[in-house]
Description:
Elements: H1 8-27, E1 34-39, E2 42-48, H2 51-54, H3 61-73, E3 81-87, H4 91-100, E4 104-109, E5 134-137, H5 141-161
Parallel strand pairs: 3-4, 4-5
Antiparallel strand pairs: 1-2, 1-3
Helix pairs in contact: 1-5, 3-4
Amino acid sequence: MSEPIIDLHSDEYFMGEALRQAARAYERDEVPVGAVVVREGRIIARAYNQVETLKDATAHAEMLALTQAENAVGDWRLTDCTLYVTKEPCPMCAGAVVHTRLARVVFGAGDPKGGAAGGAMNLLQFPTLNHRCDITAGVRLEECRALLQSFFAEQRAAAKARPEN
Length: 165
């Protein structure tokens, strides 16, 4: 079997699928981050943030998608997979990416304060860790950023509207 062709159009398409997941999070008052894992040109996992829903600080879209992908593959090693996520992974999620040995991470909006794929730090390519993966940043950036900005603007407006106790 020949290698799947990875190009900008593929990245745009799969990020669109991650954006659909992020929209599901938004509808549920979760921070709108969505993720999909792709193997051999096919989506094997889809997830969105569910921290508030599950009352679980580790229920980030990436973590949930990685667990699904491991189940789909039947192994914890995801060496031939790509993670598409609408926001740059945090240190927890980047650590999970390194441990599962993903080949590549593609993200939309960067996170200069807390991102661990080159924003605040780069755990995905940290020299002393046992695995490094390729990173593609900024895919469908404006859409990913707009979703996050809209969500947080609504959250701030709702907080201001609440009466003081």
